[in-house]
Amino acid sequence: MLEDMMKDSEALPGDEKLQKISAFAELAAGLEEHIEATETKLKEYKEKLREIVENHLPNAMAEVGMVKFQLTDGSEINVKPYYSAKIDDENRDAAFDWLLENGHDAIIKQEFNVKVDRGDTETANVLQQYLQDHKMSYSGKTGVHPQTLAAFVKEQVESGADFPLDVFNVYIGQIAKIKRSK
After folding, report:
1. Average pLDDT, whole number, for the chain?
2. 3-state SS of 71-99?
């Protein structure tokens, strides 16, 4: 038994190796904290930028009747309409019904994601063969891509179409785009 204890003690790492492990662990913990703080600060900066380009800058330019402005360095500021929309769960059926009834259902995409238990290769093979035979590729949900929805909303609003803004949670604003000179 004493021999086993001696062998175990010889296998233990020395102080230098333990210090190295400890130093790496402290460095990793410090980096994690730094990354978290940096991500928080980045979110703050993004929110401040959004506030400036969506509110302060367009409002300031509107006060003097401008939609375009050139800076002394050659950069240009253009204020343009900005559209965003979101189909939330509460309005999902109403939004899809409206799109279908008004001939815009092509922007609705259906996606299916099928999970087969590990080892159930027979079911997986049958399903895979069926999908291949019918030239189908599925993954798992029905929805409208956010960029497609924003472009669609812009088209509807700008054409003057009778469009239910509330059903699609539409936000229309102005945004200042800054094009830097080269």
Report:
1. 86
2. CCCCCEEEEEEEEECCCCHHHHHHHHHHH
